[in-house]
């Protein structure tokens, strides 16, 4: 009998308009670095604008190739694995007001075959995944609340990722913690006494 997909869903409301939130999440290469919106993701490598390679740590190290699927500009990001760990999912962005956005993440994946995969699920890999996703989204919402003016607006010269993310094919967390620290230091200098506490411990599991 084929192993069924497990589904996990989390959501949060953030105090920023849809276009700003969508622009941040569309920067996959920043997931292992500054954003950490999926902190179990350790590396993202782009093959082209449709295909990418992902490395994650969820009760062990797992890798997969993915293709963009069901993307709706400014509304939804979707993907489906084509090789490696079987998974698919989407992130949706819905306005709840002019200045607020509901973010919903839905992930479906098949636990790795064999005893290790079964053990991981029995030990609570699924509930741990949801816990980490919820914490990541909560931290992201706090980051948005404390962001300096222009930092989240892709039309602003102070936008976090003006050209950096789109010009690189690979982004690894361990290589870019220094970059995260430099961004935080720069933001602190821009806004006296403002703390942007989006530096946190590794949540590998």
Give a description of the structure.
Mean pLDDT is 75; it is low at 114-120, 164-184 and 186-205. A hairpin with a 7-residue loop joins strand 4 (61-68) and strand 5 (76-84). The longest helix has 22 residues, at 125-146. An eight-stranded antiparallel sheet has the order 1-7-6-5-4-3-2-8. The radius of gyration is 17 Å and the shape is globular. It is an alpha+beta fold. The protein has a single domain (6-190), classed as Alpha-D-Glucose-1,6-Bisphosphate, Chain A, domain 4. It has five helices and eight strands.
Question: Topology of this structure?
Answer:
Blueprint: E1 6-14, H1 18-25, H2 31-35, E2 41-46, E3 51-57, E4 61-68, E5 76-84, E6 87-97, E7 100-109, H3 115-122, H4 125-146, E8 170-172, H5 173-190
Pfam families: Polyketide_cyc2
Organism: Thermosporothrix sp. COM3
Protein name: Coenzyme Q-binding protein COQ10 START domain-containing protein
Which tags fit this structure?
8-stranded antiparallel sheet; Alpha-D-Glucose-1,6-Bisphosphate, Chain A, domain 4; Polyketide_cyclase/dehydratase; 8 strands
Q: Assign a percent range to the helix content.
A: 25-40%
CATH architectural group: 2-Layer Sandwich
Our estimate of the beta-strand percent is 25-35%
Rg result: 17 Å
Oligomer designation = single chain
Structural class: alpha+beta
User: What is the CATH T-level topology?
Assistant: Alpha-D-Glucose-1,6-Bisphosphate, Chain A, domain 4
The overall pLDDT, averaged over residues, is 75
CATH superfamily: START domain
Tally of alpha and pi helices:
5
The low-confidence parts are 114-120, 164-184, 186-205
CATH class: Alpha Beta
Question: How many structural domains does the protein architecture include?
Answer: 1
Largest sheet: 8 strands, antiparallel
> Termini separation (Å)?
28 Å
Order of helices and strands: EHHEEEEEEHHEH
Protein name: Coenzyme Q-binding protein COQ10 START domain-containing protein
Pfam families: Polyketide_cyc2 (PF10604)
Region (Disordered): 148-205
InterPro entries: ORF3 (IPR047137), Polyketide_cyclase/dehydratase (IPR019587), START-like_dom_sf (IPR023393)
